[in-house]
Design brief:
By secondary structure, the protein is α/β, with parallel strands linked by helices. About 35% of the residues lie in helices and about 30% in strands. The protein contains eight helices and 13 strands. It has helices at about 15-25, 60-75, 100-110, 130-135, 150-160, 180-185, 205-210, 245-270, and strands at about 1-10, 30-40, 45-55, 80-85, 90-95, 120, 140, 165-170, 190-195, 215-220, 230-240, 275, 280. The strands form three sheets. A seven-stranded mixed sheet has the order 7-6-5-8-9-10-11. It has a four-stranded antiparallel sheet with strand order 2-3-1-4, covered by helices on one side. Strands 12-13 form a two-stranded antiparallel ribbon. The chain is globular, with a radius of gyration of 21 Å.
Length: about 280
């Protein structure tokens, strides 16, 4: 059984859905999932479709070629086709915080995440033992103001050697430059608290506590050159009261970060996210 996922967006016009489904049927496929959305303001049509092909002679590359000629060119589609046989490869970038790392590796180890993790990169060596426990290669690449460019060159070399599909910044406490972002557009996922831009700096929870906030949250988004302003993939919040100490806010915030980042990674790995004009369309 060959299973593919198709992601499409193009200008909205009549007959797109019928044309796509008829094309799948003509090629011998059985549609097992289909969802679509039209952005009325932009007049853009979005579709996600999963299809199975029983024939042993089915080739994803041949299918892509015919799809482009017979369908995509006609509707001027932007499209991507993925085979379920190939799991996306994810590189983890970390620093000293371990909560998101433990959570992602636990989910990965249990088979919850449909991906591969060829290696972990860190600008510190503190969490090497965690990578060792999960039997994942660990690379310590220090980053300073003077060595940042050299460090990113080493990172890019590893990413290329391992054919990495996307990167997750699991509380990686460094700003990623355009050199990396341009190589992986909408393929670098970050996680942070949702106090920005109100409470900036090294101790946002302390500032939020002093202000008496009633809601704390976490945001996961794709990284762009505009800091913390990339397309949002997932968010969540929880309520707090005057009775919560700073330590409670930090604990609740870290719990949210773990859940929100894991959900964002899963959505991306399952090919359920489409980006258009710095916004995301998330399919169920």
């Amino acid at each position: 059984m060959n299973k593919i996922t198709i992601l499409i967006h193009c200008k909205d016009r009549p007959n797109i859905i019928a044309s796509v489904t008829n094309f799948i049927a003509k090629e011998g496929g059985n549609i097992v999932y289909i969802d679509q959305y039209v952005d009325r303001e932009q007049n853009i049509f979005f579709m996600r479709l999963e299809s199975e092909f029983i024939s042993d002679s089915f080739s994803t590359n041949d299918f892509k070629s015919v799809f482009k000629t017979d369908l995509a060119d006609t509707f001027k589609m932007k499209w991507r086709i993925y085979s379920s046989e190939k799991k996306p490869k994810m590189a983890l970038f970390i620093s000293k915080y371990d909560h998101c790392l433990y959570d992602l590796l636990g989910r990965y180890n249990s088979g919850e995440l449909n991906l591969e993790i060829p290696f972990i990169i860190s600008n510190h060596s503190d969490l090497r033992s965690i990578a060792d426990n999960f039997k994942i290669p660990f690379y310590h690449i220090p980053v300073t103001k003077e060595t940042k460019e050299e460090a990113e060159d080493k990172q890019l070399q590893l990413l290329k050697e391992h054919s990495i599909d996307f990167i997750v910044l699991a509380r990686y406490m460094q700003i990623v430059s355009g050199k990396l972002i341009n190589k992986y557009p909408n393929k670098i996922i970050n996680i942070h608290h949702s106090f920005l831009p109100a409470f900036v700096g090294a101790k946002p929870y302390h500032s939020a506590y002093k202000r008496g906030v009633k809601i704390i949250g976490a945001t996961s988004h794709y990284v762009t050159e505009e800091l913390d302003a990339g397309p949002i993939i997932e968010q969540d919040v929880t309520r707090v009261t005057h009775s919560h100490a700073i330590s409670d806010l930090i604990s609740k915030g870290r719990d949210l970060e773990k859940i929100v980042l894991a959900n964002a990674v899963k959505l991306h790995a399952d090919r359920k996210v489409m980006v258009f004009n710095n916004k995301t369309v998330i399919f169920s």
